[in-house]
Amino acid sequence: MFSNFGSIHFADFAAQEGDYARFSGAMTEGGEVQLQRFVKEYSPGWIQPETAIEQGNAANYILSFAQDENMEVIVMGTGGRKVGFHD
Length: 87
Hints:
This protein is mainly α. It is built from two helices and two strands. The protein has a domain at 12-68. The chain is extended.
């Protein structure tokens, strides 16, 4: 239910302790399942992708993961959008 005080709207809901942890866990598990399905369906047999699910600032996690794994190249799709090269 929503309450209205002039132009300020808010939901009549207060999260309980542990709600975020449960929500976060469910999102992570769901993401892992979806990602594994995607890899299985779209990866050619001669490529063995490594997958990872993290939460937080994407740039920080990508760079941290690349450093931890001593990666030299990061390839990221654009979802079909046309993009140019950036310096």
